[in-house]
Amino acid sequence: MAYENLILEHQDYIAIVKINRPKALNALNSATLQELSQVFTEIAQDKNVRVVLLTGNGEKSFVAGADIAEMSKLNPMQAQKFSQLGHRLMNQIENLPQPVIAVVNGFALGGGTELALACDIRIAGEKAKFGQPEVGLGLLAGFGGTQRLPRLVGSGRASEILFTADTLDAQEAYRIGLVNRVYPQEDLMNQAVSLANKIASRAPMGVQLSKSAIHVGQNIDIVSGQAYESAVFGEIFSSEDQKEGCRAFLEKSKYEYKGV
Ligand code: HXC
Are residues 52 and 134 located together in one domain of the fold? Predict the structure, then answer.
């Protein structure tokens, strides 16, 4: 499928999705949100994709937010729908079987931070900038920032970020746990591919069911979460990879996981 505002590349078991509106610093307009939804639908069905890297094309920006030009024309009903469109995409990323790594190569502001928050892992280049500038525009976060940010960094830190509209540099984002790792800018993509390859070498079903259990568990009590974990732990015992993975360990041999 051809995309106007995205670039989709494949490298071994990795899909690399680049948001590509460089003139608007990769701001998310409705068309881009819809294309992202299409690309994740395509990836969900692709058995050859085990890990997704999501990044911004160009030197400067991951995503500089939702498209302010488009938002400025919305009435209250349309604004609510725009927010819901974003939520559907963020939830789709969270529910995607494969893990998604946000490779934050520059500005990740407003909807850009929110998009990164919907990913499973965030890594950043040292020039990355995070923040929720919405209250400086007469808005508030609307793609999940008020919900996911407190869950990730705690409500005190999230409140400060959401109330002040301050920008955080990559080191500050690292310090508060908003990103897992920070790399020199020129090394970021290599490091991202190396992390993705490591994950792709593990049992795909184990990785996917771990992702699912993490997200299910965050929305329910721990005992129900444990019940879910036991159910999927049982489920994985019907896979060939489980049998072969354990056998290879016991026989001190190597096994390449097949995803079956
Ligand atoms: C539309 C944007 C944009 C955005 C940048 N551009 N961000 N267009 N929406 N979010 C456009 C600029 O208008 C400009 O277009 C071009 O990209 C380059 O941007 P500059 O401002 O000239 O670049 P620079 O001086 O380097 O500043 C970079 C920046 C700044 C600090 C990232 O662009 C900025 O503050 N952008 C807005 C960031 C923001 O507030 N994001 C949150 C949006 S609200 P021209 O045509 O002039 O070249 C949001 C809500 C989410 O995300 C929830 C919705 C429901």
Answer: yes
